Inverse folding.
C-alpha cells in the first residue's frame, strides 16, 4: 500500500481477522503505517468507519464487515528540546545513562512526533551532534516504549562511534528482568533463532529463516509453576528480540500486547488460575525491564556498570506471585 493522505481505503474483514481490534486490523492491512500512527489517526474524528459507523481503535471486528479508513496527512518530524523529566543515573561530558520509564518513546517517529526521550535530552544537554540521524541524536540503542530501564546515549560523535562499536561487537552488556508464562524445560538456556519481519502480521517481528541472527540467554531466578521470573541477557540487539524469542518458545512475556497470550490463564485451574488472572490484570504492559548496563567508557576505557530496580508496576506483579508462593514480596 502506498500512503495517500486523505484517500479513503476500503477493506472487508476476512475469517482470519474476526475478533481483531480495529487498530490491529488496520496495522495488518496497512503495513506501511505503524500501529502508533494508526492509533493517532483513529483519535481524530471521521477517520475510520465500520459498516458506515465511526468506531474507536478498540472496536472488535466481525467477518464480512466493511472498514473504510482515511489516513491523515503525516506530520513533518523534527527533534526539538522539550522540558520532560528524566531519571538520569549518570552523566558526564561524553555520555548520559537514563533509567527510562514505561511509556516514554525513545525518539520521534510516526505517531510520536515529540514528547520523547530525545526531546528531553536536547532540553537537558543542548544540541547533540552524534550519530548522524537528526531524529536520533546520541541514541546508541533503544528500548520499546513500554519496556522500562537503562539506556545510554552519547553526547558527541566520537563517543557515539565507540559505544556503537561495543554494541556491534557484543562488548556492551545488557541484562533484563522478565516475567513470563509457563515453565522452561531447563532453568537456563539460550534461544537462538533469526529474527525478521513477520510475513503474516507486518506490525510484528518473528523467528524466520531469512531473518538476522539473534541470540538470547535466560536464567530462571524464581519459579511460580505457571510463570517464571528470569534474568535475560542479549548477545544481539534485534527489534523486540526478547519478546519474539520468548513468544516463539511458548513462554511469552506476561502482559505483552503484541506477542503475548492474553487467555493463558484460562488453561489453569484452582488457585493457579485465580492468581494468573490477577497477574494478567495487574500487568498493563509487557513485564520486561532493562536492569543492568555495562560498557567501557568511550573516552578513557574504564569499565562502567549500572543497575536499576524494576518499577512499581513490575514489582507489584512480582510481589503478588511471590506472596502466593510463600516468598517475601519485593522487586528482585
Amino acid at each position: 500500500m502506498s500512503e495517500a493522505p486523505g484517500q479513503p481505503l476500503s477493506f472487508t474483514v476476512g475469517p482470519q481477522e474476526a475478533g481483531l481490534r480495529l487498530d490491529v486490523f488496520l496495522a495488518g492491512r496497512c503495513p506501511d503505517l505503524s500501529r502508533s500512527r494508526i492509533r493517532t489517526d483513529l483519535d481524530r474524528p471521521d477517520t475510520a468507519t465500520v459498516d458506515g459507523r465511526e468506531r474507536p481503535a478498540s472496536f472488535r471486528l466481525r467477518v464480512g464487515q466493511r472498514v473504510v479508513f482515511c489516513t491523515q496527512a503525516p506530520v513533518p518530524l523534527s527533534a526539538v528540546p522539550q522540558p520532560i523529566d528524566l531519571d538520569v543515573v549518570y552523566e558526564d561530558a561524553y555520555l548520559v545513562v537514563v533509567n527510562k520509564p514505561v511509556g516514554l518513546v525513545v525518539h520521534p517517529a510516526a505517531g510520536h512526533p515529540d514528547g520523547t526521550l530525545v526531546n528531553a535530552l536536547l532540553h537537558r544537554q543542548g544540541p547533540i551532534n552524534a550519530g548522524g540521524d537528526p531524529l536520533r541524536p546520541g541514541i546508541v540503542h533503544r528500548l520499546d516504549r513500554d519496556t522500562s530501564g537503562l539506556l545510554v546515549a552519547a553526547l558527541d560523535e566520537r563517543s557515539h562511534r565507540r559505544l556503537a562499536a561495543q554494541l556491534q561487537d557484543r562488548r556492551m552488556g545488557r541484562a533484563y528482568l522478565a516475567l513470563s508464562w509457563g515453565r522452561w524445560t531447563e532453568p537456563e538456556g539460550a534461544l537462538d533463532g533469526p529474527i525478521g519481519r513477520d510475513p503474516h502480521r507486518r506490525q510484528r517481528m518473528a523467528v524466520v529463516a531469512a531473518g538476522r541472527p539473534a541470540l538470547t540467554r535466560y536464567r530462571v531466578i524464581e519459579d511460580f509453576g505457571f510463570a517464571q521470573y528470569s534474568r535475560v541477557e542479549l548477545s544481539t540487539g534485534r527489534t523486540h528480540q526478547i519478546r519474539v524469542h520468548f513468544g516463539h518458545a511458548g513462554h511469552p512475556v506476561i502482559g505483552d500486547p503484541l506477542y503475548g497470550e492474553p487467555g493463558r490463564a484460562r488453561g489453569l485451574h484452582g488457585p493457579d488460575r485465580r492468581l494468573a488472572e490477577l497477574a494478567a490484570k495487574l500487568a498493563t504492559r509487557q513485564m520486561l525491564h532493562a536492569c543492568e548496563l555495562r560498557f567501557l567508557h568511550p573516552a578513557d576505557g574504564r569499565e562502567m556498570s549500572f543497575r536499576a530496580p524494576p518499577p512499581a508496576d513490575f514489582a507489584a506483579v512480582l510481589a503478588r506471585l511471590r506472596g502466593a508462593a510463600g516468598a517475601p514480596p519485593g522487586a528482585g
Observations:
- Residues 1-5, 326-332 have pLDDT under 50 and may be disordered.
- The longest helix spans residues 312-325.
- The chain is about 20% helix and 25% strand.
- The CA atoms of residues 52 and 299 lie 61 Å apart.
